[in-house]
């Protein structure tokens, strides 16, 4: 595990500013891959799961920017995500070649929507999407799975997607999820946390042990992307 430092700043968005933190590996000169992460419907960029993933990424040589966006409207969140994406790409002090977008719950819905939007516009699009506890449907409303997965189905074949979800997630029925994955054009990898809830809590296990498992999967997946993204 390598050393890193954090830089706190604000990203301009319309007439407002968005709170953000950039985790930078100590060997930043060699870091050409960045990850943008944001939180779910509750919390902010300091939500423990996001901080843990960000620190793990930075410790393994990846830049990681996380930001706060508390709006519950998906369209608004995508606009904020776009502003953060543009800001990161404008930073000249880093030689960023590849950017992955992601988040937790509603945050990864926004990430998938932005990834689809950028790829549809033929702009520089993300190399991949990291989905932690993707909310395929509201609790008890599995009929919403098609609408919730529309942006995922629109992701292009060259894009990579990682899903990390709990087997007991009441917002991700496994049957409907498996059906959805079969319809995706993107290159998909799925990892299930046994007994995990939507918040990835597992009965009988410490939060730290679950976070270590999640982080391990994210780092392993990101490391596998490197040979394919040169």
Automatic annotation (TrEMBL):
Kindly list any coiled-coil regions of this protein: none
Give the domain of life.
Answer: Eukaryota
Residues annotated as domain KANL3/Tex30 alpha/beta hydrolase-like: 32-218
Which range is the signal sequence, renumbered to this chain? none
Q: Which InterPro entries match?
A: AB_hydrolase_fold (IPR029058), KANL3/Tex30_Abhydrolase (IPR046879), NSL3/Tex30 (IPR026555)
Q: Which PANTHER family match?
A: TESTIS DEVELOPMENT PROTEIN PRTD (PTHR13136), TESTIS-EXPRESSED PROTEIN 30 (PTHR13136:SF11)
Q: What is this protein called?
A: KANL3/Tex30 alpha/beta hydrolase-like domain-containing protein
């Amino acid at each position: 595990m390598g050393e890193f430092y954090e830089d706190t700043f604000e990203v301009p968005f319309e007439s407002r500013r968005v709170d953000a933190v950039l985790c930078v590996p100590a060997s930043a000169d060699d870091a050409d891959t960045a990850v943008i992460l944001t939180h779910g419907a509750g919390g902010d960029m300091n939500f423990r799961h996001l901080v843990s993933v960000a620190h793990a990424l930075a410790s393994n040589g990846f830049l990681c920017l996380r930001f706060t966006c508390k709006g519950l409207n998906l369209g608004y969140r995508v606009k904020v995500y776009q502003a953060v994406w543009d800001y990161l790409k404008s930073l000249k002090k880093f030689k960023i070649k590849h950017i992955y977008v992601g988040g937790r719950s509603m945050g990864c819905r926004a990430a998938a929507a932005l990834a689809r939007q950028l790829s549809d516009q033929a702009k520089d699009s993300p190399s991949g999407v990291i989905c932690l506890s993707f909310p395929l449907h509201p609790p008890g409303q599995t009929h919403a799975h098609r609408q919730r997965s529309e942006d995922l189905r629109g992701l292009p074949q060259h894009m990579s997607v990682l899903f990390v979800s709990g087997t007991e997630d009441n917002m991700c029925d496994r049957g409907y999820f498996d059906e959805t994955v079969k319809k995706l054009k993107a290159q998909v990898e799925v990892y299930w946390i046994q007994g995990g809830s939507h918040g990835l809590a597992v009965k009988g296990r410490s939060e730290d042990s679950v976070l270590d498992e999640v982080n391990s999967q994210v780092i392993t997946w990101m490391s596998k992307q490197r040979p394919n993204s040169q």
